[in-house]
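lol ok so funny story. i was supposed to be doing the assay writeup but got distracted and ended up predicting the structure for this chain instead. priorities right. anyway since i did it might as well share w the group, maybe its usefull for someone
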Amino acid sequence: MTWLVTGGAGYIGSHVTRRLLAAGHRVVVLDDLSTGLPDRIPAGVPLVIGSVTDPAALLRVITDHGVTAVVHLAARKSVPESLARPTFYYRENVGGLVALLDAMLATGVRRLLFSSSAAVYGNPPTSLVTEHTPTRPINPYGRTKLEGEHLIRAVGEAHGLSWIALRYFNVVGTDSPLLGDRGKTNLVPLILTALTTGEPLTVAGTDHPTPDGTPVRDYVHVADLADAHLAAAARLAGGPVAATYNVGTGRGYSVRDVIACAEHVTGLAVPHLSGPRRAHDPSEVVADPAAIAAALGWTARRGLTDMISSSWRTARDGSRRPAPAV
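and the output, tada:
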């Protein structure tokens, strides 16, 4: 099979690209490089610079490279940005998916692996969420991901598209510093930024109904997430499927737990202060990963210490890099 990986130069996409390549698949990457890095693409993998919102670019890459299946990761993913720029998020995330599906239908490609998110659950009624937990997203980012799932299901029913949607929980860690998360919006990168700069981290909310008052989340290593994509790719190759799976560990950690783990890994104290809760911030969201284990044989193998250790190596590598010339 030849896989098109949209967003394959990104943090998660570069890990998925390498997993597919190592398993013997042919891979081509489409990325607009707005957040992706070309250095992350392995030698021999074609990189097409373009946007998933560009129908002509999609048709060219699919036909020129003989694509037979797609992993769709290209999307905007910042919750605060989505609140400030909802039309931009719908244009990029939903509009980009519409353009991709049109190109797939026009070229006869009928296998899709979709990057979704735990953000579709919003404030769930229970802390442990299954794929049957009500989906009530509370921000434009989460709504665009849920709209994407609905659209894919509709196209599957109308046109015989075979698809799997993976709902990621909190993705952390890296296989190597080159592939690490260079963003500054998620908790672990923020903790490590506090360690490298000395600027205190603000803990958003210390009065939640959790053991230590801070929010609890399920953190999954990006290498385990890449393995989940490989398992899903194998299932798509095996015949028709229409399925949605949570990708998490089934274990929750509070913000204070993550800070304590970072201090253990680095041997340094994390400077931090307490701040108010974020609006609509759930107190606890943890995946029930039983469905993906039963259907695809996937379970997470790496723990929080592995996630933070690999992230710390990336942070130190980044701090040693010279500043770019201006």
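The radius of gyration is 19 Å. DSSP finds ten helices and 14 strands in the chain.
back to the writeup now i swear
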